Amino acid sequence: MNLFLRQLGNELWKLFGKKRTYIGFGTFLVAQNAMLLAFHFSDWQQGTARLLEGNGYLAEEFISALTVAVLMLIPQIILLMPLYACLVGGDMVAKESEEGTLRMILCRPISRVRLLTLKWLAGMVFCVVLVASLGVMAVLFARLWFPWGGLFVFAPGPVRVFGIFTGWEGLAYYGASHLILAINACTMFGLAFLFSSFNMKPAAATILALSFLLLNLVMEAMPFFEEYKELCLTHHFRGWLLVFQTPVDWLRLGQSLGILLGVNLTAFLVGLAGFHCRDIKS
Amino acid sequence: MISFCGITKRFGQRLALDDLTLDIPAGEIFGLLGHNGAGKSTAIGILLGQVWPTSGRASIDGHDVLGDRQRALARVGAIFETPVFYDYLSGYRNLEILSHYTGPTPPARIREVLDWVGLSSRSHSKLRTYSHGMRTRLALAQALLPDPRLLILDEPGDGLDPEGLHELRGMIRRLHGEFNLTILLSSHLLTEVEQVCGRIAVLKAGCLVFSGTVVEATRQQGWVRLRSDAFELAAARLLEQGLVVDQRNGDSIRLAEGVGVEEVVRALVAQGRAVYEISPQEQTLEDFYLAIMGSGVARTRQPGCPGPVSDGLRGTSEMGGDRT
After folding, report:
1. Three-class SS of residue B47?
2. What are A243-257's pLDDT values in tens digits?
3. So where are chain A's domains?
4. In contact, A235 and A217? CB cutoff 8 Å
5. Of chain B's two ends, which shows fewer C-beta atoms within 10 Å, N or C?
6. Ramachandran angles phi, psi of B104, nearest 5°
7. How far apart are CA B171 and CA B156, in angstroms?
8. Is B2-215 a CATH 3.40.50.300 domain?
9. pTM
10. The complex's ipTM?
């Protein structure tokens, strides 16, 4: 166990020692600050105030750091998070194979199963850290421009959410939604990791995973696919918003989480089978 | 120490290795030769469990590489193809990471191998600042970390300058001498192989075409260098007597089958010739290699498995001798 943890530590060291690992963190930082400026200086505040007051709530109380942080998450989760989770997932095995370090590792008596498990776990840790950083940075930066207060979440899309929470209650839900976001990120990572485990270039693995996710998003949005939307992964990625529903649709949330965990495990096992069977050749 | 038994490997339609059977005894420096695509790296890949054979089995120290890879590779160090490291980490950190894939390695052991390859002073510098020679030495250091009994070196001299090659040759000899390591060396550098290896195997298009000692490879079969007075007359007399079948260059004779040097000397003395020198004629390993690659030789095959590999020039016996 001690050796396993040490090996996992080494995988994390390798992962976080690379500059390109931080591209995602850097982009989130820039995107969040750009959005904050837009929220602060645009008429977004007036529109939100009208919506809240129209529903009988006091607007000043809910135009807060937490509300802005949740709002900022939506575009980042749809556009940026898949990109960075897949980028790291696609690199995880294929990059080492392409560069030749995988051959160096496999000259040693470590089994392929153990090696892939270590890499997968390191990727999972990366996803959790990425999502946690995303959430913490969003609240901290929002707090620089907006006051602390209650949380207002409004999502008119496929998952209809209209949630009003006090500050600390909202923070707890915000934390819970990030747990689900971390599972989403792990699933995105897992898909790219699956392709990366086969004999292909890292960019190809990333693009394949992103294409699969995009295809899910497109299919789900098609009206004639309405009956089958539950087959789409992106449908289940919306679980993080369900946390803010009152009352929470636990059945739907449980189904989505179960499916995501199942997809994660399946992707890992298929990747493992592919990795185990392939020849490691330059 | 190493045993390939009936190993065949196909990549799609391409046959990379064809029924390779070869034993490499412990304590040898063994050279694996062959042209690009001959199957050397595939054979080493199979030995390291990185390439799955289509059929056959490979073992190290009696442990099947496919079925018991962990035990088979427990005391193996290898540089397989171009050594690549994590450029953004230090040499020391690279070794630490790689060593943990084998098992817990005390920092003292890492420092010891770094010292052995002469990289102690630069061990904490980032890899991207290392020269090619330093990377090769680091590769050797990582191979030595698990305190190996077997060292597999695949083209270790690639890209090294003459000083680097000299240094590498010295290191290989030291490793063999000081630690009694078995070394499997795959290389295109025939002069290097000739200088350090005791035995060699030659692969051609996936087939084993020669396995034996370097002495056997470089000895020209049947050709003897002869220095005596009136060489032409002496050789003509020996031809008449049926002791010799050919002569060339005014200093070489080819003995008839079954005839020993002592019979020739006896005949020459009987002729009243002065014999100044008589010795087996040798060729360079390069001459031998080029001859073997240029000819359509039959492969050496070893019936039954396991067992000792075919030694000497079986199937290739005339190659050296026919060259002039």
Report:
1. helix
2. 888 888 889 899 999
3. 2-277
4. no
5. C
6. -60, 130
7. 11
8. yes
9. 0.83
10. 0.82
